[in-house]
Amino acid sequence: MFEALTEQPPDGILKLMQMFREDPRETKIDLGVGVYKDANGKTPVMHAIKSAEELLWQEQTTKSYVGLAGDPAFADAMIALVLGQSVPHASVAAAAMPGGTGAVRQAFELARLANPDVRVFVSDPTWPNHLSILDYLGIERVSYRYFDAATKGVDLDGMLADLNQARKGDVVLLHGCCHNPTGANLNAAQWQEVVAALQKTGATPMIDIAYQGFGDGLDADAGPTRAVAAAVPECMVAASCSKNFGIYRERTGILMVTGADRGLNQTTLGFLNRQNFSFPPDHGARLVTMILTNDSLRAEWQAELEEMRTGMLTLREQLARALQTASGSNRFGFLAQHRGMFSRLGTTPEMVKKLRDDHGIYMVGDSRMNIAGLNAQTVPILAGAIVEAGV
């Protein structure tokens, strides 16, 4: 039977990681892998997570299953963190998922269950896994304009023109903050125009929020998600705890669904979990719950998260200044305006290869680079390489 299987294309980022490991140059820089790194190039365990794990070790008395939707306390804590008071909590169905990816996959499954002919509108560009999962599930995807290659900002006019082609029964996939892979975000006024388009077409928004706290702060980053959820009759929100809690390998995520019939939505989420993995993982979810419901742990976590956020902003500003000095122009000033871990440099795959071959600079082929992969010592190296390569 298995001889009928065909070779699957390799994951581009995993391939890039392998190439980086095999590169002997001491000055090489890894800007490809999408994980937060500190100034020493490590992805640390946050102190708040360590503290919560110590408490959990002392207090936990069982490793028995949680419910199909996970611990309700985790759902309550995450609804409060992401949605705040934007919608009544009684109208929100929620289920824990294995990471943000699991939440995205289950949201697509839910949409297809509700409408077998659903179309999902996705930004150009978007996180590659969005496209991969949709194609695997056989769900039609429609691209909408997003990134303006000339300004390195958002092409709002193109975006709205494309979103106005959606209709009731379609899903519009939006990035809640810190757009991946571009780092270019809508401002508050632009978000209101997107909301108006959703209200006009009747399409259902799906918000992928994986970087809350990495952009302008916890509440500021959640603002667009809250505004959208409050303005439409139903909404899906896929949230990840990988980045802002630093628990990548614990696979901690949640899918929230707002709508009039919470009971039906909640039952359906449990049903979908049962078909896929039965019970979601609990360790990371329990740590997050402990942190969000304990004043001391939450204060420690928020302080660490703010340090990470401001550190990335500082790196952005340093890189923009270094590039201005090296190039004699402000054409890279957009880097300081972008938010989150990523920015899209806006150059060709050939130039990305040249940066890798000539300078040991590793970034994804579409020129997405992980700002968190830099430090004060590597910023000038990257700036010099970009200018020397003629980007």
Please state how the strands of the largest beta sheet are arranged side by side.
Answer: 2-10-9-8-7-3-4
Radius of gyration: 21 Å
> What is the CATH superfamily of the largest domain?
Type I PLP-dependent aspartate aminotransferase-like (Major domain)
**Secondary-structure element string:** HEHHEHEHEEEHEHEHEEHHHHEHEEH
Please tell me the CATH architecture of the largest domain by its name. 3-Layer(aba) Sandwich
The gross shape turns out to be globular
User: What's the N-to-C terminus distance?
Assistant: 49 Å
Number of helices: 14
Helix content: 40-55%
Largest sheet: 7 strands, mixed
Structural class: alpha/beta
What CATH first level of the largest domain would be assigned?
Answer: Alpha Beta
Write down the domain tally: 2
Number of strand elements: 13
Q: Which fold does the CATH topology of the largest domain refer to?
A: Aspartate Aminotransferase, domain 2
Protein architecture, described:
- The protein starts with 11 loop residues before the first helix and ends with a helix.
- The chain has helices at residues 12-22, 47-59, 72-83, 99-114, 128-137, 156-163, 188-201, 218-231, 262-276, 283-293, 295-327, 334-337, 349-359, 378-389, and strands at residues 29-30, 92-98, 119-124, 140-145, 147-148, 153-154, 171-175, 204-209, 235-240, 252-258, 342-344, 361-362, 368-370.
- The protein folds into 2 domains: 12-45 and 309-389, Aspartate Aminotransferase, domain 1; 65-293, 3-Layer(aba) Sandwich (Aspartate Aminotransferase, domain 2), CATH 3.40.640.10.
- It has a 7-stranded mixed sheet with strand order 2-10-9-8-7-3-4, with helices on both faces. The protein has a two-stranded parallel ribbon with strand order 1-12. The chain has a two-stranded antiparallel sheet with strand order 5-6.
- α5 (128-137) links the parallel β3 and β4.
- The protein has 391 residues and is an alpha/beta fold.
- It contains 14 helices and 13 strands.
